[in-house]
Amino acid sequence: MTVTAPQGFRAAGVAAGLKSSGAPDVALVVNDGPQDNAAAVFTTNRFPAAPVQWSRQVLATGRLRAVVLNSGGANACTGPEGFSDTHATAEHTAAELGLGAVDVAVASTGLIGVRLPMDKLLPGVTDAAKALAADGGPDAARAIMTTDSVPKTTVVQRDGWSVGGMAKGAGMLAPSLATMLVVLTTDAAVDSATLQTALKGATGVSLERVDSDGCLSTNDTVVAMANGASGVTPGAAEVAEALTAAATDLAMQLLADAEGSTKDIAITVRNAATVGDALTAGRACARNNLLKTALFGNDPNWGRVLAAIGTTDAAFEPDRVDVTINGVTVCRGGAIGDPREGVDLTGRAITIDVDLRAGSEQATIWTNDLSIAYVHENSAYST
Amino acid sequence: MTVTAPQGFRAAGVAAGLKSSGAPDVALVVNDGPQDNAAAVFTTNRFPAAPVQWSRQVLATGRLRAVVLNSGGANACTGPEGFSDTHATAEHTAAELGLGAVDVAVASTGLIGVRLPMDKLLPGVTDAAKALAADGGPDAARAIMTTDSVPKTTVVQRDGWSVGGMAKGAGMLAPSLATMLVVLTTDAAVDSATLQTALKGATGVSLERVDSDGCLSTNDTVVAMANGASGVTPGAAEVAEALTAAATDLAMQLLADAEGSTKDIAITVRNAATVGDALTAGRACARNNLLKTALFGNDPNWGRVLAAIGTTDAAFEPDRVDVTINGVTVCRGGAIGDPREGVDLTGRAITIDVDLRAGSEQATIWTNDLSIAYVHENSAYST
Hints:
Two copies of one chain form a homodimer. By secondary structure, chain A is α+β, with helices and mostly antiparallel strands. The first copy, chain A, has two domains: 255 residues, L-amino peptidase D-ALA esterase/amidase, CATH 3.60.70; 116 residues, Ubiquitin-like (UB roll). Chain A contains ten helices and 15 strands. In chain A, the strands form three sheets. Chain A has a six-stranded mixed beta sheet. In chain A, helix 5 links the parallel strand 8 and strand 9. The longest helix of chain A has 21 residues. Chain A starts with 8 loop residues before the first strand and ends with a helix. About 2% of the residues of chain A have low confidence. At the A-B interface, helix 2, helix 8, helix 9, strand 13 and helix 10 of A face helix 2, helix 8, helix 9, strand 13 and helix 10 of B.
């Protein structure tokens, strides 16, 4: 049931003709209240797409009644005209729903630098508004898919309340569409400030730690809405825990469905001086094309792990670093460890454990391999 | 004639059996004087290979009589034993040449994390010493090749003196071998300090601006030797100009022969507030897998240029940035410019011109596309 699993939400997904394939491409998620508290996290790219610029303003109020999403076009780098298109989309959605435009967030995904076909999008919004249903979550999840092979949805049940969610593609994951869009809903009663803190914390340890190719989208948007329809008011820690569970579930689904990927790689950096150091070292590995191609080739090339973290400023002594790949400590003290021939990389799951011996903090970054299929899909996207 | 084009240098390249193919794999370059001034630039990776650690100490003297180089093994992340191997190589080379070990630099390239087969390497050095010849430059250039399809050599003739050079692979270019090794020679009379300044400047605007995949090697080494055999003492500016010409020539050869590449891409960032900003923005493009796969697919996907520079802290206003690809200004003011269909990307050479309108500095970064062949070669390297 995805975003419509919690009480008081309706959703829809329709085909408006934005995608030449005729697949669903417009989704609508509506919060019927009673409360309309909301929170969001957006891309930090300095070229935020028009819908990000719009939604950032809307979400500044901490209130939201609806999110309209489209695939088939990112509406990024489209100038003032593109912003007008987003504004018109919000106005049209609001009119269909009897709301004000400021109650409506917009999210888009697709090719950058192309105007949206508004003559198709706006009728699509009208159709979506008519199709809104309390069991419409799965349709909405399908309508935001781009190169995703399956819809990504989640439901986290708690005592008398729940969190629902849907996601598409990935900002840095299935990135030919260069966007991760996520909508989370809950029927718990949560004020906006608590929701924002919980959402920031949840994405920080889940979606933001998935780094498939280091490419930061212009459109990444994660929106959370809380309506209190369950009548339950959980504590802040409970909200944070449930949102983290939902966001982590979606993040792992994004990882598993990343374009062209053949491996899910969890890079854990342990005994770092700071969490920041652990993240920096982990990301350096996740963004190292030589390591990622080696793993695609089932090659436990641990030298490329050291070469990657050797470019960072994380605190460590080079002759104290250990690297363990799928349980085999192939590098000890920055030098040759157990035989690399003992590492079995034939499965999809790979764990790389880097021990910096420089402190007591740790973090995990999730990434994928760099495959021939990745290059193929991303070289053929817009043409 | 490469490194033996200037007077007073001898070189050799022999097959010692380090490569299973039987191809040449040990090179020796000897400076017969009268002077032995030298300079070098090394990788900044925090896991410098054993030969880098050794050569950095040797070059601290500003003097050098010989460089011994091997392909077929990087001798990186091999611990104290690996350093002993490098030391033994320098000692053995020095003994063959009647020098001290401190007169001999060592450079290695190949797989990280594997010990060198010293029982093959040392006899190879003996053979190379016997084969030293005043016309041995081409043999040396061939012996340092790894996946290079052609040797890279250069000769820059000046009035009564010259600079010769050879290079292999690329630190960040043909990086499955993860190393760029360069030896430059000149028969000009140049003191060590002048040579170091000239070399640092020359590599800074050439070899260090080639960034094919952002992967920094553990072994990158650029050595320059000046012996004064020509009797000419050029001015510092003349030395800098000639070294820059030689290093640029080699850098462009590395770019053209990058593993699996189908495009040579020059990214020029203009009107930046600082050269640093221009380099940061250029490198962000050069390291963006989505842009590189798009260019492999002949797709002028300028949105990926903006998405890349949008992740940097370079000074610019997003609505003032222009992007021109192969002469077509596809993006104006951060929005849609001339039709992308007008861009012809079918040739090997691609120019991307980013105008930040934030100052008056500029810099060019050279890179390659991300191709299926790149993934194939780099996934199959060590196994």
